[in-house]
Amino acid sequence: MQTAFDPRLFRDIMGHFATGVTVVTYQCDGEARGMTANAFMSVSLDPPLATISVRRAARFAAVVREGDRFGVNFLLESQQSLSLHFGGKPIADLPSPFAAQVATPLLRESLAQLVLRTVAVHEAGDHLLYLGQVEQMALGEERQPLVFYGGAYKQVNLHAPRLFWSDNDGW
Q1: Among residues 37, 19, 34, which one has the least CA distance to residue 108?
Q2: Cα 23 to chain center, whole Å?
Q3: Rounded to an integer, what distance in angstroms lies between the CA atom of residue 22 and that of residue 6?
Q4: Which of 44, 45, 95, 109 stands 20 to 30 A from 136 (CA)?
Q5: What is the chain's percent helix, strand, coil content, to nearest 5?
Q6: pTM over cut 0.70
Q7: What is the pLDDT of residues 76-106, one digit of tens each?
Q8: Which backbone phi and psi does 112 adopt, to 5 degrees?
Q9: Is 57 buried (19+), middle (13-18) or exposed (0-12) by CB count in 10 A?
Q10: CA 88, CA 7: separation in Å to the nearest integer?
């Protein structure tokens, strides 16, 4: 006997997949805008492509079309407030975190930044998949990334790799 699909269970299960946190940035009416997103992935190295999944109801979906550029900013653990701000919990009096590159707004101090040109938009249920070709990228110094897992922000402990080798048979 098959039961009805449980969207809450599906959401809970998907929440057990740890993701990095990004803010997708774009221009809207001449102003820099952003939205928090963790549904981001690389697609291809040749050509360099990545995709983001965006709710159809999002302002981004109403503004960004094929040929338009958008930024993807990988957030640091110290940028959790930006994730909240661009995720629908605005912080009053937040100083502008934007720095412009190639007419595409990007967030200062991010772990990594990409500028993508939208090459295709695909319908996917209640979301749209934006396929973008990478036109610019920057990698900051290695620092703690912001990670989301199980409905909460988590920490990743980075450490230098420890290597060991011995020719001692008794080890």
Answers
A1: 34
A2: 5
A3: 27
A4: 95
A5: 15, 45, 40
A6: yes
A7: 999 999 999 999 998 998 888 998 555 899 9
A8: -155, 155
A9: exposed
A10: 22
